[in-house]
Amino acid sequence: MVKHVPAEAHGDERGALLAFLDEARGGIRRTVLGLTDEQASSRPSASELSLAGLIKHVAEVEQGWVARAKGEDPAVSRDESNWHECFVLVRDETVASQLAYWDQVAKETEEFIRNAPDLNATFALPDAPWFPKERVSLRWLLLRLISEVDRHAGHADIIRESLDGKTAFELVDEAQSGTA
Fold first, then answer.
1. Based on the number of CB atoms within 10 Å of its own CB, is 114 exposed (0-12), middle (13-18) or buried (19 or more)?
2. Could you tell me which SUPFAM superfamilies the record lists for this protein (predicted)?
3. At what angle do helices 51-70 and 95-115 cross, to 10 degrees?
């Protein structure tokens, strides 16, 4: 769960980028250590964000970006009518089910990247105001995912500290000691 990318960063560019993405994932995952679904779904700040919602969001985003790189549609189609569901648990979803889904997405991401012939391979994004209009490379995709997950890991740290005062350092210690 707690990751730190060593200086040698797995020997090659793919390994380094995947290791930094995994480190960023760990930054969010640790924020739900020891919490119930209810606690992880609460919104203790002025923001509408919750830890459970952030986990669901980053898993969906990663899956969607990688699907587009493969030339496929995302597993979950989002539009104005259901965008809000990207940030909340609905129906029978739980933190555990979202973490398991994210684990599967992470495995598929790694498999796809490791088997891609070249990180310079490009793909087109759908026509939307927030996507670049040019083709983007798999390298760009990995950097985008690292940026997205790291950004939300910062949000998650603030939310967790607002819930019970636990900081990232305390949660890292708990994860490493197995007390979480």
1. exposed
2. DinB/YfiT-like putative metalloenzymes
3. 30
Tokens at residue 70, please? 């493969």
Residues paired with 123 in a beta bridge = 136
> In the chain, what are the domains?
13-177 (1.20.120.450)
Alpha carbon 31 to its chain centroid, in Å, reads 13
The whole-angstrom separation of Cα 50 and Cα 160 is: 9
> Rounded distance, CA 159 to CA 82, Å?
24
pLDDT, tens digit (0-9, with 9 covering 90-100), for 32-87: 999 999 999 999 988 889 999 999 999 999 999 999 999 999 999 888 888 888 89
Please provide the distance, in angstroms rounded to a whole number, between the alpha carbons at the two ends of the chain. Answer: 11
What's the rounded Cα separation, in Å, for the pair 12 and 52? 33
| C-alpha to C-alpha distance for 72 and 60, rounded to whole angstroms | 14
Interatomic CA distance for residues 73 and 67, integer angstroms: 6
Q: What value does the mean pLDDT take over residues 156-178?
A: 89
How does pLDDT run across 84-133, given as a tens digit for each residue?
Answer: 888 999 999 999 999 999 999 999 999 999 999 999 999 988 776 677 77
- Looking at per-residue confidence, does 4 or 128 come out higher? 128
Beta strands in the chain (DSSP E): 122-123, 136-137
